[in-house]
Amino acid sequence: MRCVLATTSPDRLRELLGLEPLGRDRFEGLGGPGQVGTRIFGGLVVAQALVASGRTVGADRRPNSLYATFLRPGQAAVPIGHEVDRVRDGRSFSSRTCRATQNGIVLLSMEAAFHTGESGLTHQLAMPKVPGPEALEAAESWFESAGPELDEWKRAFLGSHPVDIRFLSEPPPLAVRRGPQPPRLGVWLRCCEPLGEDPLLHAAALTYASDLFLLSSALLPHGLALAGGSITGTTLSHAVWFHEPFKADDWLFYEQTSPWTGSGRAMTQGRVFDQSGVLVATLAQEGLLRRRPGGLAA
Predict the structure, then answer these.
(1) pTM of the full structure
(2) Which of 164, 181, 211, 274 does the annotation list as catalytic?
(3) Residue 102 appears among annotated catalytic residues
(4) Catalytic residue among 35, 102, 207, 235
(5) What is the pLDDT of residues 37-72, one digit of tens each?
(6) From CA 111, how far away is CA 86, in angstroms rounded?
(7) Is 181 a catalytic residue?
(8) Percent share of the chain, pLDDT over 70
């Protein structure tokens, strides 16, 4: 497996998600890596909040869904506190809320549900017909002849994260050089290290990775890309619904689309399939898009 990382090692995701219990449903996690400058990566904050919430439910209950609202940006390398409220424990569902803080300031509020699982009606939409991950080049290979103006994008979306990425087609900052593109982005991804058997850790790892490119799909029709371009983007809310068991250290196909942008906001959606075509998760995200004064398009 090839995984080129600038500021975090390939075996560090478990460390980032391994929270320290502080008692009374309070936890603390590491605050790195950053994504843009010194700002903490939002996917890490949500992933840690899910782990904190999951540590307060029984082992028979797996993550069912989460809805996170980002309130303030956080700083990389500053510890993140997580305080969980046990809202309800029913016969088959548990509900939790979690607040993520740095230095007493709330960064994120999250609601999460956990389910015992049960039998019932089943159906799913088919996975798109796409090349498998082994038929695709490593993400970094797309940039071998790219200019230094894309270095910020590479650091923000590839170099800082312990996730192996394979793009179906040109990554956003290269694709938009050819002009506006459809609001659709497909990638294969997997974590760079074995994660063991804990389903909570696999759900948190997917949550982490799911925040990397969703907002980028909303900029493709406008010929723009995040990081180093003319647009500043940030996540406002992030939702994940977990459907079937999966392994985040195995390849997962992540289909991302944007049905709408307007009023400085963007709506994005995602579907995640395993290699056998099983739909394992569905996602939705709203982001804020603002023009950066004096910036250039990617």
Answers:
(1) 0.93
(2) 211
(3) no
(4) 235
(5) 678 999 999 999 999 999 999 999 999 999 999 999
(6) 11
(7) no
(8) 92
